Amino acid sequence: MKIVVDWARCEGHGLCEEAAPQLMHLDDEGELVVDVEDVDAANLEAAKAAVRVCPVAALRLA
Asked: What distances in angstroms separate CA 14 from CA 40, 41, one per listed residue?
């Protein structure tokens, strides 16, 4: 699966980073950086949690 970001919706709340710090982080300007776009089985639950906690629904798995 792949993490897909709707950049127009992302507001940099950082909840996704808290849910999946091994997959993404916020940079010094508060912009989301996806470190691992292609999610393997070991990180799938963390990726799902990141998608679930986004308050503006800017993340999805494809």
From this structure: 22, 23
How big is the chain, counted in residues? 62
pLDDT of 19: 98
Amino acid occupying residue 62: A
Q: What is the pTM of this model?
A: 0.93
Chain-centroid distance of CA 54 in Å reads: 8
Beta bridge partners of 25: 33
- For 3-44, the pLDDT digits (tens) are 999 999 999 999 999 999 999 999 999 999 999 999 999 999
Strands 3-5 and 59-61: antiparallel
